[in-house]
Design goal:
Shape: globular
Distance between the termini: 66 Å
Oligomer: single chain
Largest sheet: 2 strands, antiparallel
Strand content: under 5%
Strand order of the largest sheet: 1-2
Radius of gyration: 22 Å
Number of helices: 13
Helix content: 55-70%
Number of strands: 2
Length: about 350
Amino acid sequence: MGSWQDFVAVTIEAIWQPFAAFASPGTVIYWPYLVSAGFLAFAVPAIFTLTRGGGYMRTIREQFSRRVWWAPSTRIDYLYYVVNAVLFPLIVAPAILTSFEVGEWLSNQLAALLGPRTEPAFDDASLRLAYTVIFFVAYDLGRFLAHWVQHQNPFLWQFHKVHHSAEALTPMTSFRVHPVDLFVMAIGGNFFGGLVTGTFLYLGAGSVNIYTFLGLHIGIGIYSLIGNLRHSHVWLDYGPLSYVFVSPAQHQIHHSTELRHRNKNCGFAFAFWDVLFGTLYVPKGRERFDMGLGDGTDGTWHAVHKLYWWPFAMAARVLTGRDPIAAGGQKPAPGPDGIVR
């Protein structure tokens, strides 16, 4: 009887998981983040209309049109989100090392090498502020590196294609990520964040705290208030600050099919990683472009089973040298004579 009750409880929890995300600060669709994104979706076009001119209502209709929110790829995003919300905790999450686990290991290694600390190296306020800032920078670097590798490595790109196969962007596109891709991205951020956590655990004599906002690291919480606009059709650029922070417009460009946008703007919060790696693209004004892979397969990914299984088949072709598509998701560009070399 107990096993039957356990099965029912687990099943109910799995079914409820996709809906519980709206009340969880750890997800991009936490309701305050959606409210913030909704407010900005109306406010940003109003500001641009006042400062640059243009049709406010036309922009609003474009942002909230059926072409965006009920596009074939968007409908698959909704379904894929539900399936992934059930499978991720069961399959991927248990295999991922958290930043705290990495941090505990490093802290123990430092204690063995340098000797255990009996009291913090600095006062609590200084440690807390330094840890909050440095962790966020390191965590963002880890995610950037993982993302950059996913674009540069032909094998990993096959899994990252799932995310870029979206032809319309909504907050639900954030969840259009293959489990292998989720694993790689999580490892990148958690490893670098863990190195910082371990260092500060040691310096803090086993205790370390961060400043929080909405129950999250303050940097991640503030980032999430605008983060949903990354996967939207709301054009928000940061002007000169685009060389420091990645704007939603820059990430929309990251999803473009245009050759000039290929593999650009791989950063999440900070744009200076893209500056260092030569992948920054700052728009000079509003740009119009299609979104998707741009490799001839756009429009063929609109099924959940394809999003899960096609990357494995394509990755196998890469390993056997049979995949003609270059890393970055597009076939090699033709030369002036029209011939692909």
